[in-house]
Amino acid sequence: MNITVINGTEKHGVTYRLKEMFLAEFKDKANITEYYLPKDCPSFCTGCLSCTLKGESTCKDAEYIGKIDKSLLEADLIVMTSPAYVFHATGAMKAFLDHFAYRWIPHRPAPEMFGKRAVIITQCLGSGTKSAAKDMKHSLSWWGISKIGIFTGALMSDIVWEKLSQKKQAELTGKIQKLSRKFAHIDYTKPAHTNLITKFKFLVCRMMQQSIHQSDPEYLDGKYWAEQGWLDSGRPWK
């Protein structure tokens, strides 16, 4: 199997350690490709809309985005990690997710995404883990992914692993290993189930794309949906 990891920071702190614990179950059975932000996606999205109106290859950062997009599409499991900064994912993670607006269901979602699984790993000192995880889950779910596991670790004494109490270290370790074992025992030869919320989003967007395609057959998103067969009876899930 293939795993693609998007690290929301280049720092090797607690989030990195938790991610390594999660991946330990997969080391001997998976090809793991990792990207570190902002190094592997160093530029901000400028909101030029070129990716949605003209195609993702016209993005000014296509050399970075195309490589990561290919890796995501080939992955059986996507892992996203980010510590919580001011109650949200890192700025580098947000900049990365902005680049993939064209992959949202209202635009040109990849059919492969609807059968994938994903895991989110986040932690912080005090509060903010849930809202940080939500930042990443929003994009994953709007890419078409239904099966998303979430790990949130709230630290109360320090943000350095070695300074945490043995009790807290054991608690975090046990929690991440439990999630890891859960995802390690999945049969990845079978696509994940697409839930009703995702199907509803798709069908609403389908009605929108039908209308747009009728009024403007050359509009890129509508043409894409037509080519996929989604404006008729075709669906991206099985």
TrEMBL record:
It comes from the Bacteria. Residues 1-146 form the NADPH-dependent FMN reductase-like domain. One of its GO terms (molecular function) is oxidoreductase activity. InterPro entries: Flavoprotein-like_sf, FMN-dep_NADH:Q_OxRdtase_AzoR1, FMN_Rdtase-like_dom. Pfam families: FMN_red. PANTHER family: FMN-DEPENDENT NADH-AZOREDUCTASE 1, FMN-DEPENDENT NADH:QUINONE OXIDOREDUCTASE. This is Flavodoxin family protein. It comes from Anthropogastromicrobium aceti.
